[in-house]
Amino acid sequence: MSDFGFLLAVVILIPIAAATLPLIASLRYEKVGWHIAAVSLAVNLVLTAVAVRAFFVDGKLRHELGGIPVPHGIELVMDGLSVLVVLLVSVVALAVLVHTRTAGPRSNAFYSAYLLLTGGLLGVSLTGDLFNLYVFIEITGLAAYALIASKGDGKSAYSALKYMLIGTVGASLYLIGVGYAFIATGTLNMVDLSVQFQELGYGDTLVLTSFGFIIAGLAVKTALFPVHTWQPDAYSAAPYGVAGYVSALVSTVSAYVIGRVILTVYTTDFIAANPVITSALVYFGALSIVVGSVLAVTQADVKKMLAYSSVSQFGMIVAAFGIANSAAVFGGVIQLIGHAIMKGALFLGAGILAYKVGAKTVYDYEGISFELPYASAGFATLALALVGVPPAVGFIGKWYVGLGAVQGGYWIVAVVIFGSTLLTLAYVLRLVDRMYFGKPERGAAEAVADGGVSASTKRVTVGMVALVCVAAVVSVVLGPSAAWIESLLRLEEVMG
Amino acid sequence: MSAMEIVAPALVDVFVARYYHVTFMVLVAVGLYILIDSKNLVKKVIGLNIFQMSVFLFFITAAYQDGAGPALIEEGGGPYANPLPHVLILTAIVVGVSLTSLALALVVRVYEEYGTVHEDRVEEVMADE
Amino acid sequence: MTFALEIALVVFVVVSAVAVAFLRDVLGAIVVFASFTLGLAMIWVILQAPDVALTEAAVGAGVMSVLFLLTVARTTRTEGDEGYLRPVNFKALAIVFVLFVILLATVPALPEVGDPNAPAVQETVDGAQTPYGVADDNRTPYGYYIEQTPIDAGIRNAVAAVLVVYRGLDTFGEAVVVFSAIVGVLVVLRREEAR
Amino acid sequence: MRDRENTGGEEREKKPYAESPIIMTSVRVVSPFVLTYGIFVTLHGANSPGGGFQGGVIMASVFVMLGFAFGIRPTSDWADYRAVLGLATGGVVLFAAVGLVALPLGGDVLQLDVLPIAVKWGVELLEVAIGMIVAGVVTGLFFVLSRGGRKEGEEA
Questions:
Q1: Does pLDDT of D138 surpass 80?
Q2: Are A66 and D93 within 8 A, CB to CB?
Q3: Chain C interface includes D62 (CB < 8 A)
Q4: Cβ contacts of residue A119 below 8 Å, gap of 6+?
């Protein structure tokens, strides 16, 4: 056990405490929110890196808050399942700032909400207590709704409201599930619950009901089919920077929680003891893969296309956690991280293309690579990585999930993953083909007159383009290093 | 006597003995109904609140035991209601009001942009844009 | 006597909720909702949760009603349709009914109201070992809080002790949620900068 | 786009505020007591029901009463924006600081028995922090929501 456990609490507290500073500063200065966010998130990333290193060296990190022993108090845990998610949140939170520096929004309150969202996401990733998880889910939700609406127009406000209504129902369903778990056991600590559930037996009505409601609530938050409807509207109404941040992290962390709940609270024994529930979960995931891909193919709006593709990707991740063998779980984790990097960067890349030439739909992408070679190269690489072209991370994730599905006897899931890859290829090729082989039919000025965002109000910096290109490189490099990462995570400890 | 006549009263007893749980379920259903049925955005937020608050009943009932007093610890006192669900619900109430305030701010913004808080009309205007 | 009061309150709460569902007038719905909240607060008192009752009355009925009224003042009171009551929406009813039946099916598995043998009100737990090998402590969280509150914190109100001492992170999170609300509202209404 | 179905909101804004001497006087008399009661509830959570959340709301209700008696706009102009903001942010900072100060004192985050004061006072300190946040935020919400979104060209 390492002495660095306290860092887990510190990395949650820093962004939240820092979130007060932009508001205080707004009494004297305008537009200092970005600087405060940058400094505090940079400090946070360093501390996170120390904690992550401690995990790789010594294994699992724990911190009992207030010095109260579990299960009476709340504990924070960093293990093989959460370590990469925590690192991802810290890195992405800092990286997206590069984009919002010039693209905005730039108000101080925006960065307060941004920091609160970061703190909430870290809390969700680290907590080892079911109710504490609910509190952090709600912080995350509140901040995310506000950020989506930060564009300031009616559409973003309405989409955020719809997101909030559905998201709160999801959180409340989760809370009902926690209630059943509490009534059955009298405890809320995840590890203690797993012990008590084992005593009660995995066929107990209350245990089964709690599982059903918790997973249903989290599925709403993750935007699985058929409760995905809020997500495309919310992503497409948000500013590009927010869409990048939210798409990279918010659903990702909810999907991570599904994995956490299945593996730590209910354990693989529960999954094995209830084949009907398990296969229902897996097939729901598979259905999401199909529907998400099909809807993505039919979209002309690039933001919506990317959003529906997330529905499909998260279907795969949830199916992987439902299969719950070691290959599938590792595939799920890799896909969580890979999807976050790729999808976040794709939104930011789409933002650059929209700022520069007003490209918003597939048709606007004709010949765009000739005007914006670097951003287009990054965007195209990320898109192909998303399809799962080897050796990119998208391929590795799908490979492991498919392998796990076959090992677990879910042949259909493997087939569905292959089929959806073809569909993904179809819509990505449609884009890439236009970008590189299409003729630019109209100039930038025309696009602006068409209602695009004018280049003069939204400047594109070298940093913004570089960010997309770096993400593209990372998404390619992560793939071949998967075996090495697997050895670092020690997921077998999480799976018991 | 048929099996039905034996089982039915027993089953009624099962539900009567859990009247708060049944109430929670009815209120969850009503809250969700308001949320789905209402076209007025303010009423949707009210429905959301009823939905959330009914969950509180589930927790507070779980904390109670016969003859219990509130969790104010006395020498030799007891039994007490479990303070843990009370704390959880205190938190949940505050979460609920925070969500409500943000939801209402969003409703105000929607009204300022579209001049209506009627769901269908907002979507009509949005489709025209 | 108490039981009769309880039943009256339960009926009152359910009727209020149903009334909200069918009232067209938003202002009326808000007023009925406030009474719904007060009904719940009285149920909390009966269920020996005075802290929750006080909060529900102050936050639920008080703050929430003021915020709703302000919103109606800034927007509009009518739904824009004719009539006093809304018609029954059978599609919504069907969806809700499914959820209701699922929930109702779990009722026999739940402990009775006030059951002293319910797991949630046991002071100790036998058999199951506690996590991380705390071997000599077989107390449940409930038993721990009841016993330790006067010793650890030197106070009587176990709710306050759990709130601050034992589950401080929840409470911090709760405070942050409140703070997020004002940040969110400032972002949404674009009133971020100082006057 | 602005096909308002009801212009009542606009009209109500323009209508001069109806002042009632009875309400104004009673609010003037009652509000100090309500404020005191709010502080009392905040500080008496340790041994009886109550605490920061309830007390904070009661303190904020003073501003709500003043708003209804003297008009929301004059009240929000009178109340110092910095004080309201300071209460909310100060509470969060105080809570986080109490949580973190345990670390250099050799405890875990949010541990109260390592502080140089009795745990009881640590509890009270955090209740006060909560009371500050709730009072500040609820007051702020009341003022901000009553003004609605910022119009083009309007001062923030």
A1: yes
A2: no
A3: no
A4: A12, A13, A14, A15, A16, A19, A139, C176
Structural domain containing residue A253: 7-494
d(CA A418, CA C17): 49
Q: Which residues contact D124 (CB under 8 A, 6 or more apart)?
A: D43, D45, D46
Q: Does B73 map to a domain? A: no
- Per the listing, tokens 């887990």 go with A8
Question: Is some CB atom of chain B closer than 8 A to the CB atom of D149?
Answer: yes
**Residues in chain A closer than 8 A to C167 (CB atoms):** 73-74, 132
User: Which residues on A lie below 8 Å from C95 (Cβ)?
Assistant: none
- Nearest-CA neighbor of B27 among C146, D68, A199, C40? C40
List pLDDT tens digits, range D55-99.
999 999 898 888 888 888 888 888 888 888 889 999 999 999 999
**B43 to B40, C23, C100, D85: CA distances (angstroms):** 5, 10, 21, 30
- Dist CA C10 CA C28 (whole Å): 21
In chain B, the number of structural domains is 1
Contact between D49 and B116 using a beta-carbon 8 Å cutoff: no
Subunits that touch chain A (at least 3 Cβ pairs < 8 angstroms)? B, C, D
Contacts of C81 in chain D (CB under 8 A): none
CB-based contact A185 C179, cutoff 8 Å: no
Any domain includes A399: yes
Distance CA A201, CA A205 (A): 10
Does a structural domain hold residue B90? yes
In terms of CA atoms, which chain D residue is nearest residue C152?
D119
Residue A206 has pLDDT above 70, yes or no: yes
Is B72 domain-assigned? Answer: no
117-146 in chain C: CB under 8 A from chain B: 118, 120-121, 141-142, 145-146
Phi, psi of C164 (to 5 degrees): -100, -45
Percent of chain A residues topping a pLDDT of 90: 67
Residues of chain C in contact with residue B101, where contact means CB-CB under 8 angstroms, are 67, 181-182, 185
Residue A1 forms part of a structural domain: no
Report which DSSP code applies to A269: H
pLDDT at residue B1, as a whole number? 56
The tokens for B66 are: 């016969």
Cβ neighbors of D59 (< 8 A, separation 6 or more) are D34, D35, D38, D39, D42, D131, D134, D135
Domain membership flag for residue B98: yes
**What average pLDDT score do residues A458-467 get?**
85
Q: Which chains touch D (3 or more CB pairs under 8 A)?
A: A, B, C
**Predicted ipTM of the assembly:** 0.93
Q: DSSP string of A41-102?
A: HHHHHHHHHHHHHHHHHH--EEEEGGGPPTTTS-EEEE-TTTHHHHHHHHHHHHHHHHHHHH
- Give the least confident one: A23-37, A248-262, A450-464: A450-464
Closest to C180 (Cβ–Cβ): which among A26, A139, A157?
A139
Q: Chain D within 8 Å of A16 (Cβ-Cβ)?
A: yes
Kindly report the nearest CA distance between residue C136 and chain A, in angstroms: 12
* Closest-CA distance of chain B to residue A134, Å: 9
**Can you give the residue ranges of every domain in chain D?**
16-146
**Least CB–CB distance from A149: residue in C132, C169, C187:** C187
How many helices (DSSP H) and strands (DSSP E) are in chain D?
Answer: 6, 0
Encode pLDDT of C90-132 as tens digits.
889 999 999 999 999 999 999 999 899 998 898 888 765 666 6
Q: Which residues of chain B have pLDDT under 50?
A: none
Return the DSSP state at D80: -
pLDDT band at A279 (very low <50, low <70, confident <90, very high): very high
| Cα A188 to Cα A193: distance, rounded to the nearest angstrom | 6
